[in-house]
Amino acid sequence: MSLKYILPALAATQAVFAASDCSDTKIKTQSDADGINSCSTIKGDITIDKSYSGDLSLSGIEKITGGLKCSQGANVSSITASSLTSIGKVFDLEGLTTLTLLDFAELDSVGGINWDALPKLQSLSFAKGVTKAGDVSITNTGLTDLNGIQLQTVGLFSIQNNRDLKTININNLKNATDSISFSGNYDTLEVNFPNLGTGKGMTFQNISAVSLPSLETLTGQLGFWGTKFETFSAPNLTKTGDLIFKNNDKLSNISMPVLKTVDGGFTIARDDDLNIISLSSLQRVNGAIDFSGTFNKVSLGALKDVAGAFNMQSTHGNFSCSDFKKLKNEDVIKGKFSCNATNDNPTTANGTSGTGSGTSSGSGSSSTSSGAAFFNGANVPVVGIAAVFGALASML
């Protein structure tokens, strides 16, 4: 065959191999990684085999169009990618039980984060900071903070069972397109979202502080269970979905001065240090109101419409049920009505105890005049593990 035909054929073959080298790759040894480190872009996934052992360096790669994945790589001790700026799909690490270091100095964009069972990973070396991500789920790690996660927008944001996680300060986050949830982390965890203005839903359990100074609207649930803070303040919140405060034994003050609409049910129960409930701007609750506990005063002076039922019970309330009965007579309250300011054993709408030290009574959920369940969905959290804990809490 003529040389003029052989050379183009060899060149074409070399191009095919080069393209293949920079596509989907499985890494079993550092030599496998060295084979793709000349690629600036990997067009596909990088999968770290579970047999990999020791430190892994991806030194020349700048972009992965697919995901970076490793499952059950129990002997992977560190992953370094000094030039990598973006991961197109999910950064997925599960069961890397000896991993101590993630060093991604230039990484700022990922399709998503799914980290689970990384007990030795205590901190992140993300110098530039990840500002763009889809869903983020971080579970069962040894992280003490989330420094290096500097999101501006996020989808799902789920932080669960990170027993050493003490502080979260997502300074730049302004919008969340899916639910945010925290549970089972360090019992003095402080959560700060200083610039978050809008979101879908937020649930918090076992935290010692939460700061939401810029929050204006939520389309989904806002719920708190078993928290350790004394005061909750949302000074700019005007609208939320279901609103729930349950089993927060140190909560003594709720401040939501411009809240006008609860687009769902509104539940307060077993918050035994809460003495005053004052929501001076609240006009509409598009579900049921279910308040039970030891509170003394209740102020809902702007209330114009409650689509569901109304349950108000306290052990030593200094409020007048006749004021709320008037709202029922004027058809402001549409559903079933119950009010008792001096009930030795106040109960929630579904008959469980309304105080932390009380006992259950009653026979379950009542119905509104429209036949909807009295609790109207407000007693059960809906996000991740918080759904389980909230459901259990409602049965205590």
TrEMBL record:
Record Gene3D superfamilies: Receptor L-domain
Coiled coil: none
Protein name (Swiss-Prot/TrEMBL): GPI-anchored cell wall organization protein Ecm33
GO biological process, one term: fungal-type cell wall organization
Annotated Pfam families: Ecm33
Start and end residues of each stretch annotated as Disordered: 343-363
InterPro entries: CWI-Assembly_Regulator, Rcpt_L-dom_sf
Cellular compartment(s): Secreted, Cell wall
Keywords of this entry: Cell wall, Glycoprotein, Secreted, Signal
One cellular component (GO) term of this entry: cell surface
Signal peptide range in chain numbering: 1-18
Domain of life: Eukaryota
Major localisation: secreted
Species of origin: Penicillium olsonii
